[in-house]
Amino acid sequence: MKIFPIPLFALALSMLLPEPALADSKFAIPETDEGLPGDGPIRRYGWFKNLWERKRTGWAKKVEQEQGALVFLGDSITQGWGDNMGNSFPGLKVANRGISGDTTRGVLIRMQGDVLALNPKGVVILIGTNDLEEKASPEVIAGNLKLIIAKLKKHNSKMPIILCNTFPSSASKRRPAEQIKKINQLYFAAVKGDPQVTVLDTWLLFADAKGDAKQPEFPDLLHPNKLGYAKWASALRPLLATYGFTETKPDDFSMEPGFVSLFNGKDLTGWGFRAKKTLKPLASFDGKKASDDGRYRAINGRLVVTTPPEGRRVQQLWTTKEFPKDFTLKLEFRATPNADSGVFIRKPQLQCRDYVLAGPWKTLEKYRPQEWNEIIAVVKGGVAHCTCNGEVLNAEFKVPATGPIGLEGDRGQMEYRRIRIKIAK
To answer: Is there a shared CATH topology between the 8-242 domain and the 260-423 domain?
Structure first.
């Protein structure tokens, strides 16, 4: 994948070079805070005023051609990804609405012209780090975020909103880890329980053991490089697929001889809810594209366990059939950062997670974060030998004599596909 972010020197140069006066002043930063929504800092440095007005004036000329785009809204981190987000999402119409140096309040006051005027198909938000440099409190920053979300929801009550956790940085950049963690906690509290907003854990995705940015991904401890942008793109792709922005064609896969599919890719036929303790059937979802609570969905060959809006919610989906004989189970899974799920083999749960961040197997060499990974469980005589991409997870996983196959949802989004089984003769 080719990603061409704007070099850091180019961003710096744009801050230093003087800009010619622009005739259309309606896109200029208001001279005072009087009557403006929100609270906290609005930057009015000369370089920023020029950049802010120039960017917005240019975008106003593209409103018609960018109708229905997926809008990326933010500051220099977003701006630095480039006009087409580094070609990270081929075939998807995107609009970059990041302005270097912007704050949550700056974003709030430019919402109508820069975002809502596009009638966006969806919005990806990453904002807040510059507020800290201007000494705004996490509470003020989160208050502005609430107003931003409210404007988006008022404009379109069904439009998907992806809220990225504020990226880690460094105390040397006047962005200490504890303050960023507090912002992210308040951001989550502001949208908790709102099914229109999905929070993506892009803080843990990038943070080191101290909670700071890693220099190999953030050379200046603030802006991502090519590697950082690639990780951000990978983290977003599963959500974009679930929302129907990408991966809109059915999965093209041919099973090996002797295997039988447990998931037809079109609906949840063959799956249902069971009582947690007894595993007695409670509901069957034959012919339905989603479970009754909407947590499990069949989307273009993927069985998606969606992100719970309340943060964590344990739910289990089971096959309506049981499997008393020895068998080989194969499936592929893809997890958003720090997602937590599980695969039940008759009854016991094999942890299936974003292993690098969520564990318990954090040192797997072949695990591919936010990409598809294969689990194989070979059951013989009450013991399952379980691997991920060929690496052993559990060589002696004891299972009952019979039972169904289950998939758990807990935290984050998990997707499964190519779920198939081969019964021993």
So the answer is: no
Task: Tell me how far apart the alpha carbons of residues 273 and 320 are, in angstroms, rounded to a whole number.
Answer: 8
Which residues on adjacent β-strands are paired with residue 241? Answer: none
Q: What are the φ and ψ backbone dihedral angles of 148, each rounded to 5 degrees?
A: -60, -45
Query: C-alpha angle 118/121/126, rounded to 5°?
Result: 85
Among 137, 128, 138, 124, smallest CA distance to 102 is for 128
The tens digit of pLDDT for each residue in 261-317 reads 999 999 999 999 999 999 999 999 999 999 999 999 999 999 999 999 999 999 999
Say how far apart CA 115 and CA 343 lie, in whole Å.
41
Least confident segment among 6-10, 195-199, 388-392: 6-10
Q: Say which residues have a Cβ less than 8 Å from residue 226's Cβ, sequence separation at least 6.
A: 3, 5
- Res 202: pLDDT: 98
Model pLDDT for residues 209-221, shown as the tens digit of each residue: 999 999 999 999 9
The CATH number of 260-423 is 2.60.120.560
Domain residues of the chain, as ranges? 8-242, 260-423
223 pLDDT above the threshold of 60:
yes
Query: With 90 as the cut, is the pLDDT of residue 111 above it?
Result: yes
- CATH no., domain 8-242: 3.40.50.1110
Neighbours of 144 (CB within 10 A): 25
Alpha-helical regions (H) of 69-174: 76-79, 104-109, 111-114, 129-133, 138-155
Token code pair at residue 321 = 């059939």
Distance, in Å, from the CA atom of 250 to the CA atom of 288, rounded to the nearest integer, reads 17
| Token couple for 386 | 């379980």
